[in-house]
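Design job #97: recover the sequence.
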């Protein structure tokens, strides 16, 4: 079956790191997009329609799905129980035969007890058409999540000295668009990575060069990371969860490189050098 552009793709988190470029990519492909977000953004690309969407309040779910035949969803950030939050969406999608492309994370299939893997299994059993994309850690996190520290010359995480195939969020968006606009990938899971595995020390060195300022990467142990993260206002349980998901990074299990971005999007992913060059102005603004 060809996916009809007369209907709409709903992108959850449409103003986020992946959602924003995904909306733009879908519009470029001629799709109609319902951009789901908690609050209405100040500006959306021409052709996108905003709809309120909040996992903590799904009272308008019917409205959000009106006219939609595909959904891009992701495991909710900050949640330790994505299954409970995603189940109503998957149930509604199955009842309406809406295709779901779900973003989880690289490596969640290692253990069916991992919450994000349980969300994948829930979707697979829901009856809705589905595709799963599992991106590696975002290269953009060095600016969007840890930018304050990096801009001040400090980057402390429990990743050790292992390499990781960090991915540009624009490549995740391009791959997601490919999954949303073709049925040939249905029923499959894809691991999305950058084109090469690099250490965080190497990544930080690239930012340091782009900024013209010294930035030091210091690997720390999990307990230190949790303590420092909680001190910055993150709840204890989620800080501990974050420390746990860095264990595969430190063990070198995130160094895998795949061709799945090209398979889905038709183009190779950005190099880390290009990503850093494009992100550097945002980091310079934080450092100013």
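Job complete. Output follows.
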């Amino acid at each position: 079956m060809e996916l009809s552009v007369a209907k709409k793709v709903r992108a959850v988190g449409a103003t986020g790191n992946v959602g924003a470029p995904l909306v733009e990519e879908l519009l470029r492909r001629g799709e109609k997009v319902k951009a789901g977000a908690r609050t209405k953004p100040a500006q959306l690309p021409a052709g996108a329609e905003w709809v309120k969407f909040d996992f903590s309040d799904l009272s308008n779910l019917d409205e959000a799905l009106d006219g939609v035949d595909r959904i891009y969803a992701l495991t909710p950030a900050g949640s330790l129980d994505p299954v409970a939050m995603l189940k109503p969406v998957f149930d509604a999608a199955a009842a309406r035969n809406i295709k779901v492309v779900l973003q989880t994370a690289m490596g969640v299939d290692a253990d069916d007890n991992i919450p994000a893997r349980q969300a994948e299994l829930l979707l697979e059993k829901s009856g809705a058409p589905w595709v799963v994309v599992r991106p590696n850690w975002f290269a953009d996190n060095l600016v969007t999540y840890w930018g304050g520290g990096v801009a001040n010359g400090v980057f402390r995480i429990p990743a050790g000295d292992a390499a990781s195939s960090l991915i540009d969020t624009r490549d995740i968006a391009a791959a997601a668009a490919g999954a949303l606009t073709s049925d040939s990938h249905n029923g499959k899971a894809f691991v999305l990575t950058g084109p090469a595995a690099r250490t965080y020390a190497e990544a930080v060195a690239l930012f340091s060069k782009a900024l013209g300022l010294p930035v030091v990467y210091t690997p720390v142990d999990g307990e230190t990371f949790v303590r420092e993260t909680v001190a910055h206002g993150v709840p204890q349980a989620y800080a501990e969860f974050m420390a746990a998901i860095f264990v595969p990074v430190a063990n070198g299990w995130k160094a895998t490189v795949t061709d799945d971005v090209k398979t889905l999007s038709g183009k190779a992913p950005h190099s880390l050098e290009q990503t850093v060059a494009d992100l550097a102005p945002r980091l310079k603004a934080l450092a100013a």
